[in-house]
Backbone:
């Protein structure tokens, strides 16, 4: 009898320890794919973290009475931590800013160097960095628009290479990502603005690009590249190791036609501007498609040729639309 009790106690102890291991480590049958893993992720990320749609708020159209008129070459956009919206006009060499306090527009200074072609912009926390395609440089400005200096000359990264910059992203550590359409690659600069590594190369296989037109960092330090010519997204780990693709020419259900501008929200969801499809795509943190918004929206709300997206601190989404020469603003709907 005593031996039976000891065996029963041992079995109970093993069961308790096993259950504790499952709770602490996150292992167990419920996490092996399917709904179980999704449920755990939703709990970890909190209620209301999954985008389910866009609610149209307003459009800043290219009309003669607007202070930013004319918008001849609308390009990248970005939000500041205070909600300031930046819009680049690459043809006129202007960066326009919308003050969220009184909804007034103002212009950034022009840098001393010429020519100047602002293509994309990011905030590094204290300053604004603008990707200057014609000057092959990254220009630095005060948030109020005053030009400070040329932060990085991209031609000096590799004297034998002349980058054709397409996009810019920055992570919380100050690392920079720059798309380069000339060599079909993406450059990763460390916090000292030295070239840390380059990924890609011309081609169609999994770790190659045909027009890397958009870049974005992920919450874990990895990054995503919009490979426009190959109709896909490519994902890389923090150290630049290739992890996989989403979409592609041979994917039957591929939602992408020509993915370009990228941005993430605070939950790690990814938003994609697709000018080829005339749509905005929303993907979760695992890069699974959640929804696409485009021609099915109302006439005023529907994007035509969206080239970039930016997620604001208050859950708004700005979209620069080249065909409409307008900035479309939406509220992201979560559940």
Residues:
């Amino acid at each position: 009898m005593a031996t039976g009790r000891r065996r029963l106690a041992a079995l109970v102890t093993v069961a308790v320890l096993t259950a504790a291991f499952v709770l602490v480590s996150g292992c167990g049958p419920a996490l092996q794919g399917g709904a179980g893993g999704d449920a755990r992720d939703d709990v970890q990320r909190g209620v209301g973290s999954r985008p389910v749609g866009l609610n149209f708020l307003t459009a800043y159209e290219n009309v003669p009475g607007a202070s930013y008129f004319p918008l001849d070459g609308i390009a990248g956009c970005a939000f500041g931590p205070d909600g300031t919206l930046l819009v680049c006009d690459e043809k006129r060499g202007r960066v326009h800013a919308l003050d969220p306090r009184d909804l007034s527009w103002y212009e950034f200074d022009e840098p001393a160097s010429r020519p100047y072609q602002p293509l994309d912009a990011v905030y590094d926390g204290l300053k604004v960095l603008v990707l200057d395609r014609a000057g092959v440089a990254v220009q630095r400005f005060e948030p109020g628009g005053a030009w400070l200096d040329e932060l990085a000359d991209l031609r000096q990264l590799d004297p034998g290479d002349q980058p054709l910059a397409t996009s810019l992203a920055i992570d919380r550590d100050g690392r920079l990502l720059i798309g380069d359409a000339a060599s079909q690659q993406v450059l990763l600069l460390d916090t000292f603005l030295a070239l840390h590594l380059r990924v890609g190369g011309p081609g169609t296989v999994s770790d190659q690009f045909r027009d890397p037109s958009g870049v974005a960092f992920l919450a874990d330090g990895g990054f995503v590249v919009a490979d426009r010519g190959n109709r896909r997204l490519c994902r890389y780990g923090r150290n630049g190791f290739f992890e996989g693709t989403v979409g592609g020419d041979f994917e039957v259900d591929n939602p992408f036609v020509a993915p370009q501008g990228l941005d993430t929200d605070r939950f790690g969801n990814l938003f994609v501007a697709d000018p080829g499809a005339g749509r905005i795509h929303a993907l979760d943190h695992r890069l699974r498609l959640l929804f696409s918004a485009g021609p099915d929206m109302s006439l005023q709300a529907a994007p035509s040729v969206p080239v970039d997206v930016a997620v604001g601190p208050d859950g708004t989404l700005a979209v620069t639309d080249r065909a409409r020469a307008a900035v479309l603003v939406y509220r992201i709907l979560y559940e």
In short: Confidence is low (pLDDT under 50) at residues 1-46. The CA atoms of residues 119 and 125 lie 20 Å apart. The chain has two helices and 24 strands. The radius of gyration is 23 Å.
